[in-house]
Task: inverse folding
């Protein structure tokens, strides 16, 4: 017989949107269950450098929120877990199946000392550094992970047993198995966020083939203090780049790759990175190739102007092709939109400002049909009156699970979701009286 | 707790790809560390000496830096390449 647990609200996804919605509701006394499929809470934001347009340190803003969520007496978090079979039996009665994947490490006992990592002989690409360096088969995901405990990547484990031998807390446990828990809740929040566009789908940009073509997420990692390298460097040869190009709308506003919409954040995060690069590499030239600059938010246009004043070059140009030339440098062939002329320019590193896409598999978690919009984001049934309400009564959406947006808008969206849920739960309580 | 590794070994094998990857990483690790025994070097210098592609050396060198085996020193006169040395 599997365990069963009961909460007021199930929050799926522990990025900034899920955390915000959970905290708002927990502070009103509701019992919240957060289910996060990754090894740590924090979503994408915990991996960012600084945030536009204020240039506040992303980790410094997000880690207090992560800790508050993890320590809140009304919040229970299951990481490395997923939910399925979400079944609405009646109003205020959802049943679901939670599956907790084995970490092969006793979470409560692990101190995060990383002695197991030192002993482990296996190295594979570190997904949290977007493959720029390696990690061990047993690993603490990243320095500010929460929970900051190790996990074993069993698919890549050589079963040598070294980790178990050295662990001072005796917490390596290869007997762990998948655990199933039956869940009963009154309401559900979908805060599953977004996935990044795969740039290999545009072969003419050469990502994966030309090593000095990187994604913006890889550049974010290069710009944080816990960076994969000792400075911003080219992955091909470790050279300090001095002429960096950004290609905006890589995989956004592009029918040919199946994503005709704007990703909302790429213009601004590219402008942010350009400013940070000028700080990190004072001698570097940064050029941004764009179709349109969408600096629509509060303080965004000033931020854009500031980057021009700092010396960032903006070229309204559509990139046709990227080629590798001598010494790992890159030749960009582009249509200069102002003049209509096809031009070429050489750079020593290219950053693809890859777009954001809806996550897969959200609707399959539900037994009832969860409606999606034409771009596979969760459909907002009544965007003006109840922006967080999905088509299934009692199910709400927060943040980028409903469409591309930045962090402030994700927080606002999570605020709307928690307010709507509080109203919904209150109505139920009043009814019971 | 007893050794749980022996229990999982009864039901799980180790794919060849895992063994090969482990061997390859440890071989390159040894080559890089040996190359740095004599003096500090840049990525292109190491790549030339051990005859491996530049990006392979960069990836492994940066991983060894992360693991604390090596550390970065000064950048060269052209401000292009850092020198890397063994961590004492
Ligand atoms: C390169 C880059 C730079 C950026 N820079 C900025 C910036 O400077 N300023 C700014 O405002 N915004 C920036 N953004 C946008 C910002 O990342 C998003 O606005 C924000 O992360 C959205 O948060 P979220 O919680 O909605 O989604 P996410 O951060 O994607 O979090 C979703 C969470 O849900 C989990 N999840 C997914 N599916 C499931 C499932 N089935 N079950 C359980 N859990 C699941 C995920 O693992 C993740 O933890 C940037 C984005 C990128 C790509
Ligand atoms: S599993 Fe053991 S050795 Fe590894 S970090 Fe945790 S306590 Fe340290
Ligand atoms: S048993 Fe697996 S995780 Fe543990 S040290 Fe060996 S290879 Fe690494």
Result:
């Amino acid at each position: 017989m599997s365990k069963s647990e009961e909460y007021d609200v199930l929050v799926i996804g522990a990025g900034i949107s899920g955390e915000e919605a959970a905290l708002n509701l927990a502070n009103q006394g509701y019992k919240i269950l957060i289910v996060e499929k990754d090894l740590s809470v924090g979503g994408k934001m915990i991996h960012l450098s600084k945030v536009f347009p204020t240039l506040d340190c992303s980790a410094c803003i997000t880690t207090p929120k992560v800790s508050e969520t993890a320590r809140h007496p009304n919040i229970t978090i299951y990481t490395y877990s997923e939910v399925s079979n979400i079944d609405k039996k009646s109003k205020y009665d959802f049943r679901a199946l939670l599956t907790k994947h084995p970490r092969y490490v006793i979470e409560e006992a692990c101190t995060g000392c990383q002695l197991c990592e030192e002993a482990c002989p296996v190295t594979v690409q570190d997904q949290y550094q977007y493959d720029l360096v390696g990690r061990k088969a047993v690993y603490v995901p990243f320095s500010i992970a929460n929970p900051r405990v190790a996990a074993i990547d069993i698919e890549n484990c050589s079963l040598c047993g070294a980790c178990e031998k050295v662990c001072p807390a005796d917490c390596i446990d290869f007997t762990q198995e998948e655990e199933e828990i039956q869940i009963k809740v009154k309401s559900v929040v979908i805060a599953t966020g977004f996935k990044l566009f795969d740039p290999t789908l545009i072969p003419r940009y050469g990502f994966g083939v030309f090593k000095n073509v990187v994604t913006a997420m890889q550049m974010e990692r290069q710009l944080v203090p816990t960076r994969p390298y000792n400075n911003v460097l080219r992955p091909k040869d470790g050279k300090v780049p001095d002429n960096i190009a950004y290609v905006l709308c890589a995989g956004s506003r592009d029918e040919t790759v199946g994503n005709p919409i704007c990703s909302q954040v790429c213009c601004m995060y590219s402008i942010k990175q350009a400013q940070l690069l000028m700080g990190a590499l004072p001698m570097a030239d940064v050029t941004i190739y764009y179709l349109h600059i969408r600096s629509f938010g509060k303080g965004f246009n000033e931020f854009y102007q500031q980057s021009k004043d700092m010396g960032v070059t903006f070229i309204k140009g559509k990139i046709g092709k990227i080629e590798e030339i001598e010494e790992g440098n890159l030749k960009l062939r582009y249509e200069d939109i102002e003049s209509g002329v096809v031009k070429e320019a050489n750079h020593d590193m290219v950053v693809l400002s890859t777009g954001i896409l809806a996550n897969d598999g959200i609707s399959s978690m539900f037994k009832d049909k969860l409606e999606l919009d034409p771009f596979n984001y969760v459909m907002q049934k009544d965007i003006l009156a109840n922006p967080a309400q999905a088509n299934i009564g009692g199910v709400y959406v927060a943040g980028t699970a409903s469409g591309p947006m930045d962090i402030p808008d994700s927080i606002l969206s999570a605020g709307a979701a928690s307010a709507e849920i509080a109203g919904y739960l209150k109505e139920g309580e009043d009814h019971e009286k | 707790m007893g050794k749980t590794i022996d229990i999982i070994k009864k039901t799980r094998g180790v794919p060849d790809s895992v063994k090969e990857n482990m061997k390859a990483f440890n071989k390159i690790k040894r080559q890089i560390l040996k190359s740095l025994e004599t003096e500090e070097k840049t990525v292109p210098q190491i790549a030339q000496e051990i005859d491996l592609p530049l990006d392979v050396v960069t990836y492994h060198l940066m991983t060894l830096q992360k693991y604390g085996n090596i550390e970065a020193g000064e950048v060269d006169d052209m401000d292009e390449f850092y020198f890397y040395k063994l961590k004492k």
